[in-house]
Amino acid sequence: MLGVLLLLLLLMPLPATATAQLCGSGGSYVANGTYESNLAALASTLPANASSSPQLFAAATAGQSPDAVHALALCRGDFANDTACRDCVAASFQHAQRTCPSDKAATVYYEYDNDQRPGCVLGFSGDDGFLNPAANLTGNGTLFQAWNTGNISGVASVIAAGVHELLTATSEDAAANVTRRYATVVMDSAPTLYSLAQCTPDLSAGDCQACLQRLIGMVNATTSVRLGGRIFVLRCNVRFETFMFFDHPMRRISPSSNAPAPPTGKSTLWFLSPSIRRCTNTIERLQIHLLVVVPILI
Ligand SMILES: *[C@@H]1O[C@H](CO)[C@@H](O)[C@H](O)[C@H]1NC(C)=O
Ligand SMILES: *[C@@H]1O[C@H](CO)[C@@H](O)[C@H](O)[C@H]1NC(C)=O
Ligand SMILES: *[C@@H]1O[C@H](CO)[C@@H](O)[C@H](O)[C@H]1NC(C)=O
Ligand SMILES: *[C@@H]1O[C@H](CO)[C@@H](O)[C@H](O)[C@H]1NC(C)=O
Ligand SMILES: *[C@@H]1O[C@H](CO)[C@@H](O)[C@H](O)[C@H]1NC(C)=O
Ligand SMILES: *[C@@H]1O[C@H](CO)[C@@H](O)[C@H](O)[C@H]1NC(C)=O
Ligand SMILES: *[C@@H]1O[C@H](CO)[C@@H](O)[C@H](O)[C@H]1NC(C)=O
Ligand SMILES: *[C@@H]1O[C@H](CO)[C@@H](O)[C@H](O)[C@H]1NC(C)=O
């Protein structure tokens, strides 16, 4: 009975799911204190500021030391609907308060289950250097990875080379995009691969490229043949899948000579509906406190 219920829950179209939150290590704030009210001030204005920004990005500080709170929010670069951006950032604040209660610092990666509905990134902290764009580009304090547990079938070395080539091209495009530091690329390989890369727009092209290259460097022999994966840090993220999960590809590339041979038939997953695919797209827990995969129905 419970099994049936769980199956039904998993098969239902879901409104939204938080992919992950990382509760910060900066300690707790006291209830009803100044830090809490500064955080509440950010939660009430940052969502609208991010969604009304041409870059879908906002960073702000509320209050003064020692109770100053710094926050930044970034929506995925293909948002056409700024209501969705505002709602995503607002939901991320609420999610942080629910899942990291009273924590002075938290990072939330909020993603919708519908593959084509964009998500957002929110981070806040009492650390004075938090909003410095070059700060902590090399730390793992906000690192989160989620990997499909299935593998792409084929010659592993060829697939790995294709995935690296695709991610590298995507990161170069994202770093070169001065408007949003965002790019999507499709690779005509077998299977067709789709990828996305984004940095916060306050990063220079060089810092964006370095941030993304570090993430791509974490894609190892095991993970580079997975059916999909995402790696996030606060200021940049990359994702690849065997299905199109964004609005439209900004560039189409072909694998270089050493990459996959002509199609021999697409992955079965290709034909599954998004909700079924979601079930198979099991996310592995890595470095996170809690992973919310069960929908909140009330
Ligand atoms: C905080 O304020 C709320 C509402 O004003 C009150 O119910 C609660 O008891 C207060 N908590 C503390 C710890 O002061
Ligand atoms: C939001 O934007 C307004 C108007 O530019 C600005 O006064 C305010 O400080 C911003 N607040 C946040 C939290 O970004
Ligand atoms: C940069 O990203 C924006 C937003 O996604 C997109 O509209 C624009 O075409 C991109 N610019 C370049 C040069 O790729
Ligand atoms: C914009 O997004 C909101 C939800 O965030 C949705 O209710 C609304 O229908 C969307 N509007 C358009 C024009 O897509
Ligand atoms: C860098 O991150 C560490 C924890 O990950 C934090 O303690 C430190 O304050 C951060 N530095 C800056 C400049 O943000
Ligand atoms: C960050 O994590 C990656 C991947 O797990 C690891 O290779 C790297 O050494 C870590 N860096 C630091 C500074 O801990
Ligand atoms: C590959 O990366 C994953 C995710 O960071 C990690 O769990 C795994 O141990 C790595 N495998 C190898 C062989 O390094
Ligand atoms: C995926 O490939 C790895 C080797 O890279 C193997 O250990 C693992 O069992 C494979 N997983 C599946 C589901 O086939």
UniProtKB/TrEMBL annotation:
Gene3D superfamilies: Gnk2 domain, C-X8-C-X2-C motif. Residues 1-20 form the signal peptide. It holds the Pfam family Stress-antifung. InterPro entries: GNK2, GNK2_sf. The keyword Repressor does not apply. It comes from the Eukaryota. Keywords: Repeat, Signal. Residues 17-129, 140-245 form the Gnk2-homologous domain. This is Gnk2-homologous domain-containing protein.
